[in-house]
Amino acid sequence: MRDAKWSRVSTALAGLLLGCGVPQAGSDGPVGVDGDCPVTMEPHGGAAVAKPVIVNVYWGTYWETPLAAENAFLPAGSIPRRVWDGAWAELAAMPAFWAPLDEYQVGFGSWGGSGTLEEEDDDRKPIPEERIQAALERAIAGGALPERADGIYVVYLAPGRTAAADYIGFGGSVISAHHSSYRGGGGSRRIYAVIEAWNETMGGHSVAASHEIAEAATNPDGSGLWDPRTGEEIADLCIGSESLLVPGTSALTAFFFRVAQVWSHGSCDCSGPKL
């Protein structure tokens, strides 16, 4: 969120909503500075997620339905969930994906599987946060999603669906994703992110998702790591700076394996090679 600060939208949400802004056209992202680093990433009493487990969560039947026609990234007949799961299972197994978080006490994470939320309606209105949380909890309780103590549940909305939280509480900024947490069954903490579908302005889902995963791991409930002067988290400072984790130049490779860089307090710059 380049120009938006995290904020509590409602105490009824039982969680802190933190958002990812759309990068401005022509932005090269932040660069390091000489002398004292002007950014201070500080913990605020909470701990990072030591070994995150990425669980993909798909909202609606779109993700299980073969594509009727090809698009810029996938051929006709592709089942989006299968392709996306394959990419994230590979990303989550890459040491390079997790390495930038090591200085913030986030260790090597893993892939935890996926599930579909059978949530469909016709009104197409923005989805309230309470509904997203309730759908997640039903799926975990019913066994449709694995229950992971260190899980980060990444919810992918179907094309045309939006989250209500992405348009409130951020000073009018355009937001395409956010992360939050709530208390589930038995008081267990559920950490999750919500990503709006096929947002090519973010360089593909992988950029928005990796941005939120990094911030959810280092600031899962608002008491973790952020700059007290600006409210920005470690990926907010690096919007527009990305890395490609798999060699290749195809549109498919760029779409699925381009990930957000994060702020390194040690080097006072965005970590990872620039594209």
Enumerate the spans where pLDDT stays under 50 for 5 or more consecutive residues. Answer: 1-17, 21-34, 199-203
Q: Main beta sheet, described?
A: 6 strands, mixed
Helix percent band = 10-25%
- Give the count of helical stretches: 5
Measured distance between first and last alpha carbons:
20 Å
Condensed summary:
By secondary structure, the chain is α/β, with parallel strands linked by helices. It has helices at residues 80-92, 95-98, 129-141, 205-218, 251-257, and strands spanning 18-21, 42-43, 53-59, 110-117, 151-156, 175-183, 189-195, 225-226, 242-244, 258-260, 263-264, 269-270.
Q: What tags apply to this protein structure?
A:
single chain; two-stranded antiparallel ribbon; 275 residues
Description:
The protein is of the alpha/beta class. The protein has one domain. It is built from 5 helices and 12 strands. The strands form 4 sheets. The chain has a 6-stranded mixed sheet with strand order 1-6-7-5-3-4, sandwiched between helices. Strands 2-8 form a two-stranded antiparallel ribbon. Strand 6 and strand 7 form a beta hairpin. The N terminus is likely disordered.
Itemize the secondary structure elements and their pairings:
Blueprint: E1 18-21, E2 42-43, E3 53-59, H1 80-92, H2 95-98, E4 110-117, H3 129-141, E5 151-156, E6 175-183, E7 189-195, H4 205-218, E8 225-226, E9 242-244, H5 251-257, E10 258-260, E11 263-264, E12 269-270
Parallel strand pairs: 3-4, 3-5, 5-7
Antiparallel strand pairs: 1-6, 2-8, 6-7, 9-10, 11-12
